[in-house]
Amino acid sequence: MQPRSGQPDRGRILQALMHALMRAPCFFDRAVNDARPLSTHRSHPAHASAHDCFLRLMTPFSPDSFIVADVVPSPNFDERKGGRRPDMILLHYTGMQSGDAALKALTTAASKVSSHYVVFEDGRIVQCVPEARRAWHAGESSWAGETDINSCSIGIEIVNPGHEFGYPDFPLRQTAAVISLCKSIIVRRGPISGDRILAHSDVAAAKYVPGLA
Description:
Blueprint: H1 10-23, H2 29-32, H3 50-57, E1 70-71, E2 77-79, E3 88-93, H4 99-106, E4 117-119, E5 125-127, E6 133-135, H5 149-152, E7 153-158, H6 172-189, E8 197-199, H7 200-203
Parallel strand pairs: 1-5, 3-7, 3-8, 4-7
Antiparallel strand pairs: 2-6, 4-5
Helix pairs in contact: 1-6
């Protein structure tokens, strides 16, 4: 979701906090030491059939990080174009009334939208798509000359109802979980430079899109 004109983009505030803490001494050692290998925006391939999505939904996978509490597979993904390795982290907020509603949308084939991770208000992290795969979260977007943001990024949905429902502050526990997750991704997938940890509003073509951001 993008901010309306005149409203602060709290995604940017969260991003700034993340950058500050990621430069500070690490107090999330488990995330940093985790080096084990393993939107209603529609950016899915036209050839993805309902049958393909059903088969994907039936395929469980192991989480990429031990800080993940649950895996809830989404059928909405495909391969990264050209075997691209992700070198960007893209932060979204869900913009729906509840985290459960957002998770359902992200894991339902008919929605044709997904993200790699969902971070709930209590800090619980759910993984929906393996990092090696291309989740459908960025929609029509571009950054530094790139237009297939889904292929180069890992998408994180942060549960928050957004502007339509009062836009509450991000709880500290949730913010800490997002920071830990980003550090974990950077250790395993890095290097990822600070200017490639972005809010959706940084890359999206539209100024304001209701629904999943």
